[in-house]
Task: inverse folding
């Protein structure tokens, strides 16, 4: 399937989604958000895809933010509609039942930072920069940045970034837990593909259940979350992938998880 503002590629079990508006540093407008929504629905419907890499085109930017030229003349109702659309897209990425890795190859500001936050794992190049600078424009984040950022890095660090609008370097983002790790800028995609390949080789049902347990468990108290984990653990034993994984371990060989439908 082709899209107007993004590129979609599939290599075996790994899909790569690239936001492709390099002239405006991949800024998010309504067309881009709608393309992302359609693309992630395609991914959700394709059981052969086990891992997704999300990145931006060019060498400068992952996503520099929401498109200010587009937003400048919105009225309050239009602004709410735009925020709701953005949140819908971020939710689709976060709730996809397969891992999504953000390959942050430059600026991840405003909506771009929120897009990275919706991913499960973030790998950044040394040139990456992160921030929620919306207060400098007289607005607040609209794509759930005020909600996901404190959940990821804690209230104190999140409030500092949100209230000041400061932009931080990749090393500082790693220190506060905003990104998983920092790599040389020319190794971002290779690092993401290496990790994606490792994940794709694991039991796909188990990986899906891990994401389910993490995302849903964080919204529960510890007791309910542990019971939920036990339920998912038990459900693994209804899958042929559990039999193959444990049999391969006993036989000292690499497991063959051939089907994502098991």
Result:
């Amino acid at each position: 399937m082709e899209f107007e503002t993004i590129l979609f590629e599939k290599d075996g079990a790994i899909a790569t989604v690239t936001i492709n508006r390099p002239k405006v540093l991949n800024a998010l407008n309504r067309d881009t958000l709608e393309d992302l929504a359609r693309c992630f629905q395609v991914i959700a419907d394709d059981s052969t895809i086990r891992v997704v890499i999300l990145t931006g085109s060019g060498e400068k930017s992952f996503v520099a933010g929401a498109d200010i030229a587009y937003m400048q003349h919105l009225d309050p109702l239009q602004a709410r509609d735009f925020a709701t659309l953005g949140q819908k897209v971020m939710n689709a990425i976060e709730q996809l039942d397969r891992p999504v890795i953000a390959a942050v190859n430059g600026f991840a500001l405003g909506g771009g930072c929120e897009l990275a936050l919706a991913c499960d794992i973030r790998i950044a190049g040394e040139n990456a920069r992160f921030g929620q600078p919306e207060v400098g424009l007289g607005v607040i984040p609209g794509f759930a940045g005020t909600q996901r950022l404190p959940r990821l890095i804690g209230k104190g660090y999140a409030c500092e970034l949100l209230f000041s609008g400061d932009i931080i370097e990749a090393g500082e983002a790693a220190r506060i837990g905003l990104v998983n790790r920092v790599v040389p800028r020319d190794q971002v995609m290779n690092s993401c593909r290496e990790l994606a390949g490792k994940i794709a080789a694991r039991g796909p049902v188990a990986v899906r259940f891990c994401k389910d347990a993490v995302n849903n468990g964080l919204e529960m108290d510890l007791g309910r979350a542990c019971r939920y984990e036990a339920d998912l653990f038990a459900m693994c034993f209804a899958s042929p992938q559990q039999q193959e994984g444990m049999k391969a371990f006993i036989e000292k060989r690499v497991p063959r998880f051939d089907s994502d439908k098991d």
